[in-house]
Amino acid sequence: MIRVIALLTDFGTTDTYVGVMKGVMLGICPDAQLIDLMHAIEPQNVKQAAFVLLNGSRYFPAGTTFLVVVDPGVGSSRKAIAMRVGDYTFIAPDNGVLSYVVRELGAAQAFELSDPAYWLSGTSTTFHGRDIFAPAAAHAAAGVALKQFGEVVSDPVMLDDPMVDVSEMQIKGEVLHIDHFGTAVTSVGLLKWSAPAQLTLDPCFGVEQSLSFAMQNAVVRVSDQTLNGIKHTYAEAARGEALALVGSSGYLELSINQGSFAAQFGVRIGDKVEVQVG
After folding, report:
1. How many CA atoms does the CB half-sphere of 81 hold within 13 Å?
2. CA distance 248 to 271
3. Over the stretch 42-58, which tens digit does the pLDDT of each residue have?
4. Helix count (H) and strand count (E) of the chain?
5. How confident is the model at residue 240 (pLDDT cuts 50, 70, 90)?
6. pTM higher than the cut 0.90
7. Which helix (H) or strand (E) holds 25?
8. I want to staple 244 with a disulfide (CB 3.0 to 4.6 A). Which of 44, 120, 220, 269 is the partner?
């Protein structure tokens, strides 16, 4: 049996935090395969982590355990939880970081990580990733039933959906993620090409109706920048030219061909985006 544990944190890779958690997990489940989903979440940005988890988790094999540590409430009264959602197990703080996967895959029962038998001894108040979450992820991957960890959590914290407001002529959204290349990934989706020059916005994040529009008619605004049209590929823009396009996960992305959109235009997570579609 393959035991996969995927890690998502805001710890970065210049400190020992991620490596220490991996050491803890291998001490408990030596045959686990540890995969780094991402460690560059903006510090304490639970909403960004929820979005990255939603779009990254779907490509992992059934049975994967996800260890998610973006935890601005560490040491407070917030709970630590384990949750089975669809074919996956998630170990995370109860701060809403699992909201989007729960809404996509279906509600699931959560259990509090309250039994010290599944913690490291001498638990700290500042590094629950090492002392509580990593041991729980390893035990879960090794086959421990989630109900062994503690009592049922009947009302886990849920974030509101990201902003996506659709009218006949306009879509409003927000920047949810900025990747390594400086591309701004927005909440405007899910988008698909319904014809070579025609896009359809499918229901997503609480949007119930679809909307179709011509790519050349779209006008995208973010910060003080205006982009005309939505492209298929980066190659449709000159080097250094800004463009809007549909990214690999189906969301509207704002980029520069061989440059950083976020750095050049000062765009940040949370900035509002408007798309005029006619």
Report:
1. 24
2. 21
3. 999 999 999 999 999 99
4. 6, 18
5. very high
6. yes
7. helix 17-28
8. 220
